[in-house]
Design brief:
heterodimer; A: nine-stranded mixed β-sheet; two-stranded antiparallel sheet; 11 strands; 25% helix; B: 90 residues; Electron transfer flavoprotein beta subunit (chain A)
Chain lengths: 277, 90
């Protein structure tokens, strides 16, 4: 008779539906934001987070009891959840906001995720999420969530492993000029960087698995719980007001010079003076 | 997963068609090419030839997936350089 694992891990993976990485961003005519009538897809760092969760289960097998994904967004965000379910998550939670609502801010998202964590029967042992979203590049949500929960955090993770018996996560994180190895007591928040399974000489990265059509079809049977911010008692109204969004100034073309004398003349015109000997 | 060649061909076609939606070069007629490639082989009867054609289809699917994956990875590596990418200042 096989003994059931003494400790079972519940993993939560927050994901975000962002403007697709390949889209050429344009500022909208009102200069209040970018044109969002473009292709959207799951934040690439969140794809890596989902992949890490699924790989953890492949390694730890029954010790991982559940992998839940959650997103905060308009109705179309459920497509992002379906992709995550097709990659191997078991169930999803969709905190639905109206299409016209302003994009939630990291603190609002962190508060909402905290409320989701507290609602989970059986608790949440590990939260894996992308280090930042490629549309706003805030990189704050994971850290804020860990602070609100009072849990350990390991950010810019490039390698993640769990010791289920000891209830710790072993994480290698990217820091300036190298890497840091951390051991975090569970529950923990881990934010994923681009490279996982990295060492100085190899350049591998966690490649998120392709969600094949048969898996997408199977994922349609997996449950998605729909909630509103009111259901979880969170106000997602932005605290910050965006005054103006503009494109960076257009690059002025360079000019060619015929000889050194012309170069010196142009430099003088621009206000550069010779260094005194 | 059924082993009937017809069903395998159909599911391969659906998969490739769906993949083709994301092809980065709009002037490359991915859907047209796939349709013609499948149509060219629609009257095959020899199991060995059918198997070969399906394998070619699988190969094209994997190559396309690799193309997408590499493109995305290169873009992300460029936009989010790692600390080890920049030259060290000592």
């Amino acid at each position: 008779m096989r003994a059931t694992a003494a400790r079972l891990i519940n993993i939560l993976v927050p994901v975000k539906r962002c403007v697709d990485y390949a889209v050429k961003i344009r500022v909208n005519p009102q200069q209040t934001g970018i044109d969002t009538n473009v292709k959207h897809s799951m934040n690439p760092f969140d794809e890596i987070a989902v992949e890490e969760a699924v790989r953890l289960r492949e390694r730890l097998k029954d010790a991982v009891k559940s992998i839940k994904v959650v997103t905060i967004g308009p109705p179309k965000s459920s497509e992002t959840l379906r992709t995550a379910l097709a990659m191997g998550a078991d169930s999803a939670i969709h905190i639905e906001i109206p299409e016209s609502a302003p994009a939630p801010e990291p603190l609002g998202v962190a508060r909402a995720l905290k409320a989701v964590v507290e609602r989970q029967q059986g608790g949440v042992d590990l939260i894996i999420m992308g280090k930042q979203a490629i549309d706003d590049d805030m990189g704050q949500t994971g850290q804020m969530l860990a602070a609100l929960l009072g849990s350990s955090q390991a950010t810019f993770a490039s390698k993640l492993d769990l010791d289920v018996e000891k209830k710790v996560a072993m994480v290698r994180t990217e820091i300036d000029g190298g890497a840091e190895e951390l051991v975090c007591k569970l529950p923990a928040v881990v934010t994923t960087d681009l490279r996982c399974g990295h060492d100085v000489f190899s350049d591998s990265f966690t490649e998120p698995r392709y969600a094949s059509l048969p898996n997408i079809m199977k994922a349609k049977k997996k449950p998605i719980e729909k909630l509103t911010p009111a259901d979880i008692g969170v106000d997602l109204t932005p605290v910050l007001e965006t005054l103006k969004v503009t494109e960076p100034p257009k690059r002025v073309g360079g000019g060619k010079v015929e000889n050194v004398d012309e170069l010196v003349a142009k430099l003088k015109e621009a206000g550069f003076t010779a260094v005194s000997a | 997963m059924s082993s009937s060649p017809r069903l395998r061909a159909l599911s391969l076609y659906k998969e490739l068609h769906r993949l083709g939606r994301e092809y980065p070069d709009p002037s490359y007629d991915f859907h047209g090419r796939i349709r013609r490639l499948f149509q060219k082989n629609k009257d095959l009867t020899d199991p060995e030839q059918i198997e070969q054609a399906l394998r070619l289809g699988e190969y094209i699917k994997n190559e396309t997936l690799a193309l997408y994956s590499l493109k995305k990875y290169r873009h992300l590596r460029q936009k989010y350089p790692l600390s080890s990418d920049s030259p060290s200042h000592s």
